[in-house]
Design goal:
homohexamer; 310 residues; alpha/beta; 5-stranded parallel β-sheet; 42% helix
């Protein structure tokens, strides 16, 4: 390598290695604890799918005779991976708060604290697994709603195997349950995985009822405090967002305030509509596409964009 | 593992393994038949690209002397994989209809029926391969339209190698041909792969003419019965959707009714416009962005969103 | 294989192998030069991230003692891969121009020209690496803006690890620097990688100031000549596009003309708004969602879509 | 590439592609049948080990509660892979005989014959699986003999996990059972895999009693018609071979004639001894190393190499 | 699947899952502890080689400037992997003794004991790493001896990169140091890896001086209590073994008694010679090939096999 | 990590990074040149096998119609990989000689010299490929000899697919041709690969006639200057070695002197025999196992080990 290039590179390495300048940009994991890992989370989601929809995902040919073997092995592997990822999330999120975390964690975890995190990770994973039958039941309603709402769908099987909307809803329902159990970081990573695959961004904090369907879905955004009833259907590009958010005296956004819409049962929202703020879209209302809604909409009503000009 | 956790998990396994409760959520593949496989389909698409655009995809350094070796090996591998995937699609889609398929397929396939499916898979794959020269010819028009329509494009090579619009159109043209041949399931999986990669969701049933271009493309949706002429250009976020769909007496959507727009030649549609229903956008019309169109638009006309308010 | 199938396939291979019909669809790489490779580019981006945000990406457990080892090894591997990819881009883009390149490159590179490309690739890679400290500094402002702008964000760590907006901005800042250095093809491939992962399409040619934040982001498009100030925030689906572009006397778009918007400091644009043409959105202006803007907007003003109809 | 090189290569391709000159060197597999695959066979052996010695091989953490899940899933996967490999062996070995098989198989299999081979493969695989409990029982005696025969062995666990002798004996016992069932080709491939890993070459046709131990083992050869009693121990480099073999009138070796030694119970043979021909080493005899034995050895006797010269 | 086959398989699964019959054949690892892993050990050996012989193994291009980065990253990764493997070995070997371990470990490890094992694993790994400079120095003498002893060797580089003898000696020197530190199980696995690759089986307990060379090497066996001086050279097939070993009153071999040969400095032993028992081969002696030696050999003497007969 | 451990490791890294102490143990590859790579060589050998024995190795189903495609693609890939590996060998072996090479190569290659090495690598690879038809012809004789010499062999197919002897001979014939062409380093690596897989160590310099067979093979060693006629058969453990070798005035072995045996046509040597020195085993002689031969053996004679003692 040419000497001038070599010098430039050596200098860059020196500059980039100045530890004291790394405030907030560097993460120092205690060695004996796992890192949150998108590879592990992908296997976790695949295992959940294989358990919820036997025979679709994973290599196995399911029969009446071998169903319990496959469920058993998959659930066990799920517990193994999920315990570790929950531990990773618990550790990763210790330093929350507004002030950017300094790169070096000032107090390393004691081995007792590490043991507590391990135990907690295993307990939360077991609690999650105990919820899987209920998650399966709810997803069955979503499959049905998706199938009935799309004339192009040929069978339940096609919906389960191919539809991005169902994929995003599955990840959301899994992530939402983990968030309810108090797991930090990991739920968000799980919904972001679906966001990347499908373009559908559902915050794990949202509350969503049975028979939920999203058609096509690219560009859908559902915020952290949104509340959605039963039999609701969204098309691509729909935003359920916040209009603005109050700041505290230090200028930071106040967290946890309800700031996203409430959609009552049987609402339909067409493509690219933006619904902002803690407003209520009443039962059975239909919202046309490409409109900007920041006020309540009455039940059973129907609103559309104003006429185009030519 | 802690005993309480262990009990929770053992119970969950039992509940999740109750075969009789799995109606519609379980898929039972007959052992000697392949499953539709997204891994195989990705290789199929890569092989199609390598055959259509020699030298861009795959590892080979193409020359006049070795072109036929590479085409030969790639086409043969394509036939091997595609035959199996078509068979998988044929089997997977046997139980179509509105009633959710029971998990266990009541009548296992006879070995004669299996043999027929195998033969049909091979025949359809060969027919598809016979169409590849025509597909290449049509994609050449799309490359040219994309290049000419984007001042930021530097060369045909950049368009072929980098442009998500062309990638989505390639998958669509392949999937559309397979659908024309009567292949179930697989065409939809192929367009969903492009949907996930590019955010562009073109139903394989749509009919699209030569010189088609999509710029940027994220959020584009083109429905199953849409008809698009020649020299049409769409920007990101454009929906060509259905406004509503009639239900049959059992409350299920009636399939196969034309319900998406017709775009005549030389139409341009700007970003995030939503065009719904079996309407016609006349030859040479320009549709501005962010508007909601549910009525015919005259040829050569130009419509825009109504003025903003301040 | 059935004989009729076999004949169809053999004929298709023959047709597809006709070298003389391949104008513009075939790429012939000179054997001793690398191809642009998305696999290599993904490793390059991962290495950049590992160097910029130590401890988040890659397997390493970073400490004060080992920071310089890891930076050293990663920067060196980055230089190795990036030099080769820049060479690939330089070669790939030799034949630019409107006329579709014939498949065979008429004049093969001399070995002196090859040596020059190699030397240039190494020099540009070293220059890029010398810019990494500045890129890190600017990305630190983006992390802070993203964190402060989202009440749902729990820590800097979550922003760095999970937020697609930051991921797209990182790829853009890397690609923009490479474009400034004169590297062809590769910058576009890097922003397209982020486009595919996040649905955010930022052209590497755009100019973007510090403290830039994109929330959710799916469907965002930022054109090649857009100019964005400091403390700007965009929501999902926002387009900063061109309205139209002048053609030269041969009917081809004229390249390099400023045709995208200018956003001054502190502008906020809500979801799915489309801003087209070389207009200026004044300092501190707020643009509501779902609107179509093709004229200048005054500083500190606020515009919204016209009222919906019921 | 230089033109002269190019011509040499093109000529070589032509010469090497002359189909008619390929007699006996080319294998033409009927497309719908699998090839014997060393990758599949390695997974088969790993699955057998995981079933026979639970908790040692494979990733699982075995407990009383999950043992049956793991056995179930592993046995099922074993059946899936083994059925296919047995079919491959049955097809591969159709053309046996002295005359070198012509490259093209003159009569392609009818689909009925293919179905028969499939059925036979499944039946033989199930028969093999039914033998696994007995194989496990016999291998338990080999583990014990190996442990007791080596002062350096610390535990049963070390023997099962690390000892090449046990690994070779495991492969042999699996392969021998398959050969007894009439499976062609595959048994030999399984013992060759152990041969490559351990340097121990046991023909699957040999008959070997309980409590068999091989120490170190590199270079051991046990021929196809060898018969070995119980509690026999061999050291590295021992050959149990054929002295010569009668030819038939066409000059080909006559197959199936007993031509390898018989070792009665409790025989010990030291390193590098060569025992040739259908001789009997009597019960309890000890054979010293590096000697050449072609005649019967009486029970309880002890023979050594003649004295060295200085 | 045919019903009869299915029944056979279901029965086999039941039989194989009988937990109480698994004495001594089943291993139950406590979940939070790693298993000894040959994959991890292969990476460990590759890292040791990369540290000892920089530039030969691993991908890096070593220069004066980057040497310390690479050593740093490799040593750190080595410590990470080796600590875990030593822990695995410590746990795995808890139940040693003659009585076959019952499958279920009666007393699960307390979390304090687990913490002790972790701490011990880290301490022993650090001690091993502190020995690497000395190991490198000793291997340098082996490289030189191998080079000088083989007229076919062209350079030190060829010896380091290609010679199986050096590969086996490297694994031995690493394993021997780990055994000296008291690490169980892992040293044996490391020498078995070399045994499988090279056919050379050196027990980690053997004591071997500087300038040791093995030529070709297949079939070499060096027992656990062998003692080898400096400048010794062995050819392929040489055994340094035990003649017999005393049993204790329960009929088990007594462990730890010196039972293998002592080779003084400058001894050469030709191919396939077998040297058994605690005898001494005096300084400078030469032992011809294919002989069986069970008595002391005087210094500087030379012994050969007795004459062949014709 | 504990502080004391950490200090030990930091110190070890410092010691191991002392560049000036690395004489002869460090390899510094010039960046733009490839390293010899066992991964690449394994693919090279697989490609050679796929070309020589079409249909056995690689995934393809060979037919009359596709044979030339597969040969073409495989030969081209072979040329691509082999050119690079020959270049690697040419560079790697520049510093040959007795004096240990200093770690830093004092004179870096000029770019002209690099270009020469590249050109030479391509030329030698093309020459090798031109020899493949002749290599195939000779290997066909080896297949026949192996088949006829083993009553346990069922078909040519079994010999080609499973026999380690044929595998070792294939690697030898490939490596020998490369050595004849003047390629350094790579031939030895190719025969060492077979040595590791099969335990058969044939030096690429040996000269071996048609119809060569090795049965079982573990432990066979054939030295660099050995000369073997036609129709020769060796059993496992046979050494054709050097008895001693003259040193030059500096104490280094003199290279290139004939020092290994000559075996005339139709010789058979049984297991574990050691034949040393430049002696001649006459036409048709038979050498019994386990003997040590250092003098000429007359044609058609037969020699055996002296009688055992009891």
């Amino acid at each position: 390598m040419n000497l001038i290039h070599s010098d430039k590179i050596i200098n860059a390495i020196k500059e980039l290695s100045q530890y004291d300048l790394l405030k907030g940009l560097c993460h120092e994991q205690q060695e004996s604890l796992p890192m949150p890992s998108s590879v592990a989370l992908e296997e976790i989601i695949t295992l959940c799918r294989a358990v919820i929809f036997p025979g679709y995902f994973g290599n196995a040919s399911i029969t009446k005779h071998n169903l319990s073997y496959h469920i058993g092995v998959n659930v066990e592997r799920l517990h193994h991976l999920l315990s570790a990822q929950i531990q990773a999330g618990l550790y990763f999120s210790r330093q929350q708060g507004y002030a950017p975390a300094p790169c070096i964690n000032p107090e390393p975890l004691t081995s007792q604290k590490v043991a507590e995190i391990k135990e907690k990770g295993q307990a939360l994973s077991a609690d999650f697994i105990a919820s899987l039958p209920a998650i399966r039941e709810q997803l069955a309603t979503d499959v049905e709603a998706t199938f009935l709402g799309d004339p192009a769908a040929c069978s339940f099987e096609e919906v389960i195997y191919c539809y991005p909307g169902l994929r995003a809803i599955s990840n959301y329902r899994i992530a939402h349950r983990l968030l309810e159990l108090g797991v930090p970081m990991i739920p968000r990573m799980i919904t972001e995985m679906a966001h990347s695959e499908t373009g559908i961004d559902i915050h794990p904090g949202a509350t969503i009822g049975d028979y939920f369907a999203i058609d096509h879905g690219t560009g859908v955004v559902i915020g952290a405090t949104a509340v959605i009833g039963k039999h609701v259907k969204l098309y691509q590009g729909v935003t359920l967002g916040a209009r603005s958010f109050p700041l505290d005296e230090t200028g930071h956004p106040i967290k946890g305030i309800p700031r996203h819409p409430i959609l009552e049962d049987n609402v339909i929202i067409y493509s690219n509509a933006t619904i902002l703020g803690r407003i209520t879209i009443g039962k059975g209302a239909t919202i046309g596409g490409n409109i900007w809604v920041t006020e309540d909409v009455a039940p059973e009503s129907r609103i559309l964009q104003s006429k185009a000009r030519k």
